Amino acid sequence: MPRLPLRPVILLVCAALALSACAKVAGSRLNPMNWFGHGAAVVAPTAAEVPLVPADRVQTIDSRVPVEQVLSAALDRTPNGAILRATGQAAGLGYYNAQLVAVDSPSGTLTFELRAEAPTGATAGGAAAARQITVATSLSSADLAGISRIVVQGTRNSVTLRR
User: CA 20 to 30 Å from 27, out of 13, 65, 99, 100?
Assistant: First the structure.
């Protein structure tokens, strides 16, 4: 029986041991503990994570005010309805977070108020161009069904669009 040289056998065993150290049986499909998935840990919320007021009772207070004057309004048609765009002039510089907010209106009329949030250190005046605010909102075909007038209001005036 021929004898294998000892040196290649030792090298082969060392290489096999080195490669087997790279294998992770714990994460493989061969491990029976992985066959049915891992259980999810359930952690009870702490007192700091439970809100004092339920989410269905939280009311957001809108601190925005109507802009001083509405300069223009336009209704641009889209395939799914229209985009209402309005430009207004704020009372001073630095107004931000502007939005067209729907308000109660008679049937056949959509009424929006152009509102913006006043900065903490608001100063009256400033160049007219620097006080202009332009906003837009999307209206679906369902929103426009049966509507013949759209009104955009500010503090001092309003602009009416007829369809």
Answer: 13
CB–CB of 137/100 below 8 Å?
yes
Distance between CA atoms of 147 and 26, rounded to whole angstroms?
Answer: 66
Question: Does residue 9 lie within any of the structural domains?
Answer: no
pTM: 0.62
Q: Is the dihedral of CA 87, 93, 97, 101 positive or negative?
A: negative
Nearest-angstrom CA–CA distance, 84 and 152: 10
Work out how many domains the chain is built from and give that number: 1
Q: Are 84 and 70 in contact (CB under 8 A)?
A: no
What are the pLDDT digits (tens) for 129-146?
Answer: 999 999 999 999 999 999
The parent domain of residue 71 ranges over: 65-162
Residue 116 maps to a domain = yes
Domain assignment present for 105: yes
Is residue 124 a part of any domain in this protein?
A: yes
Q: How many CB atoms lie within 10 A of CB 97?
A: 14
